Description:
Blueprint: H1 16-36, E1 40-41, H2 43-46, E2 48-54, H3 61-70, E3 77-80, E4 86-91, H4 99-111, E5 118-125, H5 127-155, H6 158-182, E6 185-186, H7 188-218, H8 224-256, H9 258-289
Parallel strand pairs: 1-6
Antiparallel strand pairs: 2-4, 2-5, 3-4
Helix pairs in contact: 1-6, 1-9, 5-6, 5-7, 6-7, 6-9, 7-8, 7-9, 8-9
Amino acid sequence: MAMSKATRNINFMGxxxxxxxxxxxxxxxxxxxxxxxxxxxxxxxTGGTTVVVKSPQDVTLSVVRDDLAQAGFGDAVVxxxxxxxxxxxxxxxxxxxxxxxxxxxxxxxxxxxxPELELLKVEFVGPQVGDELRDESGTAMLLALGLMMIYVxxxxxxxxxxxxxVALFHDVIIVLGIFSLVQWPFDLTVLAAVLAxxxxxxxxxxxxxxxxxxxxxxxxxxDPEAIINGAVNQTFSRTVNTSMTTLLVLVxxxxxxxxxxxxxxxxxxxxxxxxxxxxxxxxxxxxFMMKVSKEDFMIPExxxxxxxx
Length: 309
């Protein structure tokens, strides 16, 4: 005879008020950081010089970074370029310096330790291109948030639509605030991670919100806190399993994906943790603020039409 699985009954809503205050403080702090400190924009947005070199042997990136730091290019971004023998170096703009001269200086600094090094190309991306890219990237992020807002608005009632969209903005603002605090480079890779986070966070919030809606319609309970608490308990295993499997992939990317994937994995590691938290506590707190009740989810009875003349 199979034993029934015990129903989990964790009082998630018991901590909603202090965690709601914590969320508000984190959002305010993030906005202040973004306004006062800003983001450490990468070369994708600021422009700069790109140098590609090739060696007969495999190139160790740490050695390249050390050589560039000694030559005054400590802020350069160094990556393998297609193969371990080719290296892409991106250097921030130098005031009054010609791009070709900057590229030659980078090449000379590396050739001192590797005389067989070959210069493949030098390219310059001007600040104007970087500004246009930054503006278009910001537009893409706002467009993604706007489309998500339209979707959840039709997918749920107005109260759930507002709660889910607030959770999305909460996640994005906090992730950007952390990047501003620690001054991690913010480039197109991080922007892609933020856009991926919007989709991940929305999916997690919808799973929780859908269960809450069904429980409001079907439960005999009338206390909103008890209904939401029960719904969160029912979806908790799914939420944790999804988050853990995603985090395992991101940790692997962080340690073994190289410099190219480092910023992407950093953004999503923070985002997945914040998104998992917000799908439970931000959504529920907004629902309580809007005084959600069973009446919000009752399906209206069809009106009978009198066919008599």
